[in-house]
Amino acid sequence: MQLDTVLIKVASRCNINCSYCYVYNQGDTSWQRMPKHMSFEIVEDVIRQLATLYRDQDHPFAVVLHGGEPLLLPRNILEALLKGLADCLPATCSRSIQTNGTLIDDDLLELCVRTGTTLSVSIDGPADVHDTFRIAFNGGGTYARAAAGIARLRQHPRADLLFTGTLCVVDPQSDPCRVYEFFKSLAVPSVDFLFKDGNYAKLPLGKRTVESTEYGRWLAAVWDCYVQDPDPPRIRILDDLGRLLLGGASVKEGCGQTMYGIVVIDTDGTVTKNDTLKSMFDGADRFEKIWSVSTDRLSEIADSREFIQYSHLQNPTSPICRACPLLSVCGGGMPLSRWHPETGLHNPSVYCADYKLLIGHIQETLQEFR
C-alpha cells in the first residue's frame, strides 16, 4: 500500500463540544488516555518519519493536522511542526489544518503563509443550523466565533492560497438551498458535505430508519442548486459522484472503488487506523500491533499484512453490495456506516437508500445535459 493521507492528531482535546462528534460523543474513550497535545519530541519523530516515508514511496501524500482542535497545540510546537514539514517535504505533499475556526488569529495565518500550510474550517451553515449541534461546553452556540475566524481568513491578502474551503456536517432537518446560499455568501472555494456518523447499532441523527432517505433528499436538493449555479463553489461529494457516473474516479474515500492508504498518528505518536472507525465501538481504530512513529517506519507499517487488511475494509463484502449496479459509484459508503454489532462490516451502509436516491437523481440530470 502507498499512503495517500497522513492525519496527525496534534491535540486530543477540543475547545467545543459538537453533539455528533465521533471522537468524544460516540462511545470511544481512547482520547482520555492520550496526552493533551503532541510534545516537541513526538513532533520531531513525526517530521523524521514523514521525510523517510516520502523517500521510501516516492509518491506524494497529504498531511492533515487534526484533533480535537489542532489549534490547541501550543504555538511554539505548532511552528516547529509546520516549519519541519515545509523543510522536509516537497510542495506536492500538501499540508493543511482542519479547524473549527474559533482560534484563528493573524499570527497563525502568517505562520501558515511562511510554511505553505492551508486551512479548512468546519461550519455547518447559518447560525441557527450551526448552533444546533456545534456547541460550547456551556451549551451556547459557537457560530459567531467560527464565522469571525472565516472572516479573518478571507480578509488575509493571501486568502486565495490559505483558504481551501469548508467542511459541513449535514443536518437533514435544515433547508438545503438556504445552506447552499449561505456558503455562496461566504464566497468559500469549496464545501465538503459529510453525513453524520452512524451505523446499525446507532442510526445517524436525523435518519428515521435504515430505509428512509432524509440525507439523500437533502443532498439531491443541493445538487439542483449546484448545477443551476453559473459560479458554484466546489462540492467534493457531488463532484466525485458525477465524475464516477461519467466514468472518472473519486478523489477521497467514501465513494467509488479506489482504495486509499490512510493512517492516523495520535498525540503520543501511536499509529492507528482511520479515526472515523471510533464511532463503531471503543477501540475500533486500533491495530492489534502497537506501532509508533518513535520506533516504526511508516512505509513498513503500510506494507504489513494488518495494515493491508485494514485498507481492504473500504471494499464492502455484503452480497447485496457486490451485486448492486451502483457499487462502482457509491463504493459501499464509509466502512463505519456498515457496522452491525452481530455481523460486523458484512452489511450495506445504513445510508444505502440515501445513496440510491442521490445517485439516481444525479444520473437523471446528467442524462438531460447530454
Automatic annotation (TrEMBL):
- Please verify whether the record's keywords include Iron: yes
Q: Which UniProt keywords apply?
A: 4Fe-4S, Iron, Iron-sulfur, Metal-binding, S-adenosyl-L-methionine
Q: Is the Iron-sulfur keyword given for this protein?
A: yes
Domain Radical SAM core, by residue range, is 1-249
Named cofactor requirement(s): [4Fe-4S] cluster
Record PANTHER family: ANAEROBIC SULFATASE-MATURATING ENZYME HOMOLOG ASLB-RELATED (PTHR43273), RADICAL SAM DOMAIN PROTEIN (PTHR43273:SF8)
Q: What protein name does the entry list?
A: Radical SAM domain protein
Taxonomic lineage is: Bacteria, Pseudomonadati, Acidobacteriota, Terriglobia, Terriglobales
